Amino acid sequence: MKVLVTGATGFLGGYVIKELLGRGYEVRAFGRNQELGQALIKEGVDFVSGDFTKEAEIMAACQGMDAVVHAGALSTIWGPWSDFYQANVYGTQLVLKACMEHGIKRLVYISSPSIYAAAKDQLGIKETDAPQENNLNNYIKSKLMAERLIKNCPQIPSIVLRPRGLFGIGDNSILPRVLAMSQRLGLPLLKGGQQLMDMTCVENVALAIALALEAKDEAVGQIYNITNGEPRTFKSLLDELLDGLGQEKRYLRLPAGLIGFFASSLEGFYRLFQLKKEPPLTRYSYYLLRYSQTLDISKAQEDLGYEPRMSLSEGIENYVKHYRES
Ligand SMILES: NC(=O)c1ccc[n+]([C@@H]2O[C@H](COP(=O)([O-])OP(=O)(O)OC[C@H]3O[C@@H](n4cnc5c(N)ncnc54)[C@H](OP(=O)(O)O)[C@@H]3O)[C@@H](O)[C@H]2O)c1
């Protein structure tokens, strides 16, 4: 089977390529970053340079493919709506169009559980608990709109995955931010860091994507939560990481209410003055720090046969080893 992977030059994309090649797929990697593309070519990967918001480029990339993994996105929590719309909504629309044009037999779309974000503790969230609208930030809004586009296009046999909190070697978002903050200021703990959270080793997400490509037709049209299935308190995860790295644990125990107020005010200020830079604290980050959020993955286990192959502790150990060596 020939599979086009968008976002191939990104964090998750690299792991997807490795997983699919290991399973004997013919993979075509798609992305804009020429330098990373060249590195993929050197590893023997078929890399096509392109932008999925340009119709001709995504059309050409889909030619001759059997399946598409659409993992490319503007994946950050701050920025103007026009950027998120262009990359995540319009881009997905063009991917769907290209899939139709080339008779793609399976599309796996990578969405995000950030769409569940709310100012409350939520344990064991099911896929059907997703809200119709969530305008907490433009990323979330765009991911919900993209999911709707997929749902409204039954001509393409699609499966949507919502993997939560990806981490692993090469992560350029979650762990580097945590470590930078730990070294600069200390890590904020609200409610003692006792909120429960679900994280996912990036290797397990790549596995879930391969399983979605291989799943029976009954899974088509379905949405699946993906995590490691090991809910842990925020503090216990930080303790394990910092102990592994041999770094001092500098926690800042902060009053939740005040931090919530501060996050809303900061966002308001940045919006009012149309500041491009991400505020040091957003309402979304505050929700992550304040509220428990765990996902029910039983549907992916039952329908896709998904069982995480790497535990959180193994993932943290690998990350620590790599961090110490580099
Ligand atoms: N990281 C997480 O914790 C997390 C959690 C839930 C869901 N997700 C989802 O998982 C997917 C992968 O995330 P990630 O962490 O791997 O993000 P990432 O490292 O930022 O990778 C995203 C990739 O998308 C590509 N891309 C963006 N716009 C493009 C365009 N117009 N045309 C072509 N390529 C474009 C970029 O490639 P170039 O740089 O080459 O342009 C980038 O490498 C995303 O859909 C994200 O929303 C991530």
Automatic annotation (TrEMBL):
One family name in Pfam for this protein: Epimerase
InterPro entries: Epimerase_deHydtase (IPR001509), Lipid_A_modif_metabolic_enz (IPR050177), NAD(P)-bd_dom_sf (IPR036291)
Name of the molecule in the record: NAD-dependent dehydratase
Domain NAD-dependent epimerase/dehydratase: 3-226
